[in-house]
Amino acid sequence: MAKTTPSSVLQQSVSLLHGVGPAVQSRLQKLGIESIEDVLFQLPARYEDRRVVKKIAELRGGEREIFSGEILAAGEATTRSSRRKLFEVIVSDGSSQILLKWFQYKTVWMKKRFAVGRKAFFVAEVKRFGSQREAHHPEVEFIKENSVIEDACLENSLSIGTILPVYPLTEGLHQKTAQKIWRDAVSRFADDLQSHIPEEIQSKRGLMTTAAAVQAVHNPAADSRIDLLQAGRNPARLALVYDEFFFLALGMAMKRRGVVIAPGIPFKLDHQFTKPLAALLPYKLTNAQRRVLGEIKRDVMSPHPMNRLIQGDVGSGKTIVALMAALIAIENCCQVAIVAPTEILAEQHFTEFNFYLGQLGLKAILLSGSLPPAEKKTAYERIASGEIDLVVGTHAVLQQCVIFHRLGLGIVDEQHRFGVKQRAVLKQKGENPHLLVMTATPIPRTLALTLYGDLSLSVIDELPPGRQTVQTTTVTENRRADVYSAVRHELMAGRQAYIVYPLVDESEKSDLQAATVGAQQLKTEFPDYRVGLLHGRMSAEQKDAEMKAFKAGLIQILVSTTVIEVGIDVPNATLIVIEHAERFGLAQLHQLRGRVGRGEGKSRCFLIRSKQISDDGLKRLQVMTETNDGFRIAEADLEIRGPGDFIGTRQAGLPEFRVANLLRDARILDDAHEDAFELANSPGFLTAPEYEDVRQELKRRWGGRLELVNSG
Ligand code: ADP
Ligand code: MG
Fold it and tell me: What is the residue range of 60's domain?
């Protein structure tokens, strides 16, 4: 249903642009650039200030500088030391001379180009040896014969005298080619871009139009402030950021409108089960847990369904809050469904919930994909009849054949692993049941409000008492023996340890082998202890047995791939070793480390890294050793990775950002959030003709992910 919208011109292929043949096209594709619009919204990675042309005598070196001059001499030479051939050019501008060197060149071509007497601009990082100046492989722009240098730049040069955009590249795509392509796209198509933000908001926030903003980010005016440009705080970029946030927030506001009006199942609190549970728990709830529970109670007692997100760092105790909420639902003669992303986690939740529910005379069941068909069938029947109070499971719970007698509360654990869709499916299994989703992904509050605009937010910002930070150490592979002696020390004290190997690609057998081989070696290394192995290819029963044995303390060392990443809770495990730590992302490392430090024992984490490691890899490990704070880690993650898909916008079914950076631009998000929610809640927004364009654009950005209903 390709509609002819004014933007269709911009949807055309990049192959229409000058300089884009099939080869360049496929390279652009690697950068995610397919249409002309994609080109326009791919902003420069940075800028190069070419406004100031220096005298040769003023060149200081240490950064790229621009100078001009006349060629005094040129020719081939041989280095004294290695007798390598090189091409040398001497340039003078009257103030001083500089020696230019090329080590790769075609002699004939060079001789022709660098004829004595020609004038040119040069861009290079200059080296200084005393009073001598030298530059290797400078960028050269020749100046037309007979022209005065000062005028020449304005007439002939595309870059000298300007602030030059520098684009992100991929192999085989040269900066000059990229600049040419972008220049062409901007000059021919930027004017076609339309602004869709309502005028009153545009003028209130002083926003540039989209066309002007796109022009200005790619082609900054010569009097622009370079510091703002480099920091991404130039008005043009900020206008584009605002635009993205505005439509994100507007869509979220619409979703929220849709949610609030539905009638729910108002619960009553009679404490029939919650009170006895509190007595069964071996600990008291923290203040944060109690506060969040209070927020949940308020929600479920209201006439509308609850839609609440609990955010709490790993180990903050989200599970027990969920259990309390579940009991309130059961007190109201409703069933509860809990969905977890992995079988191991579902199994663990089931064990814990069943332990308490059993003592309260209630019935829980575990639904996993690997259940034999006959058992599945009985399970379905018991759920449909209402005999079962609480169902725990993986995606299996979401299947069509699972029909509830009366679902009153749906709980989604580790929300970041699921999308909006799964949430919707779960909701449809009852008549507007209450919904509770839990995540350990820490995100700033406004951001959470916007991203999960249809959810209310509760934060568990306190860890249970007695928790100590996990002391974290990074070591290189050759120091593994030291790590093992630390492991031995823990085991002798009766504690347990995890050893984790990366699983880069699930289809790759070699990684699995790493864990299997690792387990074998550890058995030799620790003959007096039992070593278990856990990986994604084991059957559910095998995994289950291994996990149970580890929990019961029958196994002291659990070797594993990342299947233990989310949620596993064994408080007696106090040490975790992560092999090839550089291969993991920060969020993953934080989750893995969260497996220890769950009891009273002092806990440690060893990150074993290869000698060969990227700068980003090193930075990640450094962050891990510096802090245990999930929020700081998330911030660092964003800084290192850039905006990327940090909160899983794609998975969450949200429009993707092309320009905005969720953390860096948090202030703009505040503004856009305020404006969008105000507009969405104004009475005429869904009907007034003057907002037709805004509504159309909103639909377009959100694709099929947003239903605009006029609910009055
Ligand atoms: P997460 O928020 O990561 O899901 P869990 O719910 O798995 O964390 O809780 C982590 C551990 O803390 C569990 O062993 C749990 O029993 C324990 N715990 C939870 N709440 C408290 C509390 N108030 N006091 C002491 N321990 C607690
Ligand atoms: Mg958890």
Answer: 52-160
